[in-house]
Every structure is written in C-alpha cells, then in structure tokens.
Amino acid sequence: MIAETLAAVMTKNALITAFLVVAILVWASYFLSDKLTRGHIHGSAIAIAVGLILAYIGGRYTGGTRGIADVPLFAGFAIMGGAMFRDFAIIATAFGAHLDELKKAGLIGGISVVIGVVLSFSVGAVTAVAFGYSDAVSITTIGAGAATYIVGPVTGTALGAGSDVIALSVAAGLIKSILVMIGTPLVAGRIGLNNPYSAMIYGGLMGTTSGVAAGLAATDPKLVPYGAMTATFYTGVGCLIAPSVLFLVVRMFT
Predict the structure, then answer these.
(1) 7-44, pLDDT tens digit by residue?
(2) d(CA 37, CA 241)
(3) Chain centroid offset of residue 190 CA
(4) pLDDT for 75-86, tens place per residue?
C-alpha cells in the first residue's frame, strides 16, 4: 500500500521525480568514479553512459520512442531532457566567465571554432562515405553530427534527411562527447590545458559543450565556463554553415 501510494505521488510529480533520480544517479556515478577509477573517468561520463543504457532499456520495455520517459513513473524526463533545460544549463555556464579573459581569445578563439567545425565535419563525412552513404544529404547530416549531436539533427531537418540518418548523426555526436569527457583530463597536462586561454581554444576545437564541460570539470572546474563558452559558439557556427556552405561543398563532390 505504501509502495503504491509512493508510486502514485512520484508519477503525479514526474518532473520532481526526474530530478531526484538524476541526483541519485549523479551521486552514485561520482562515487564510482572516485572509488573505482580514482577520478580518471569523470563521474559525468559514467552518469551519461548509465543514462543511455536506461534510455535503451526503457525504450525496449515500452516499445516507445522516448526511452525511459515512456515509463509513466519517469515521464518527467521528457521535460527535463528537453531543449529548454539543456539550453538553460549551457547558457548558465557563461556566468562563471570573466569578460577580460574572454577577450584574450580574440581572433585565435574565433579561428579555433571554424577549424573545429570543419575538421569534425570532415571526419564524419569521410566515415559516412566509408560506410556506404553516397548522397549529399546523408553525408552532410552525419558529418554535422560528428560536430555535435545538436548540429546533426538541425542539419538533417533542414536538408530533409531520413530519421535513420538523423539518428546516426546523434549517435556520432554522443560518441564524440563521451570520448572528449574521458580524454580531456588524460591529455590536459600534455597540451597545456591549464588556463582560461587554452580552455577557450580547446572548447572551440572540440565543440561538444557537454563533453568539454565535463572534461574540464575533471581537469580544473575553474576552466569550465571558458571552454563551454567557445563550445557553445561552435554549436551555433555548426548549425549555420553545415546545412549551407558545407552541404554545397559536399554536393560538389557527390
């Protein structure tokens, strides 16, 4: 009886339930990161991996399309995981940055964003071709997904790509994000990633805001706002040039 009442209350307050579950998941992930990996794999990377597994299980269990949000008890994840909270979290990171430090990035910071988008797009486009995709729309969409998992769907929707190709673009972006999360603290010492200036350039080159933020959090939390700032610009630039300039370039060669 108590369990049924509790389940009813949690279902009725689905968004609060989602926050509670995420809080427990994040706490457990950071605990595992500290005890099992001694911080080498950041807690956020573990949390995202577990979240993806839960989403898959939820989708398989319900046969739905929204992952674990199709389970009534966890319906709040549809809102919590939506664009509104995502964009709010990304924008909120900017408030920890100092304007004087941002100005130091200057032209180099801007160039790093363009180079990062084009480089990631190129790798994704080549991979798409290697796996048998030959039309410009599919190649561009998957290439954009390799930039970030936000740029991919935006580009695919603008170009009229199929849902399967858009899903692949999201998967490519998620893999990149997780690799950046895990790899950033491992290479930080070797590439001089220890100051706001280098963090801004790194964010511009890597681009994935979630991956850069989590990776820098594991390296030095003070660097997160700077890397996240240029990574956010990276997403904007990708959404601008991927379905336009880069698509036209791809179409020239297909």
Answers:
(1) 777 778 888 888 888 899 889 988 888 888 776 666 76
(2) 39
(3) 24
(4) 788 777 766 676
Q: How far apart are CA 156 and CA 141, in angstroms?
A: 5
Q: Which residue reads 């005890």 in tokens?
A: 35
Amino acid identity for residue 66 in this structure: R
Residue 65, classed as helix, strand or coil, is coil
Q: Which residues of 136-150 are buried (b: 16+ CB within 10 A; e: fewer)?
A: bbbbbbbbbbbbbbb
Distance CA 70, CA 87 (A): 23
Residue showing tokens 């605990």: 31
**How far, in Å, CA of 142 to CA of 171, rounded?**
9
pTM for this entry: 0.69
Token reading at 82:
């939506």
CA 250/CA 174 separation, integer angstroms: 23
Which of these, 251, 228, 211, lies nearest to 113 by C-alpha position? Answer: 228
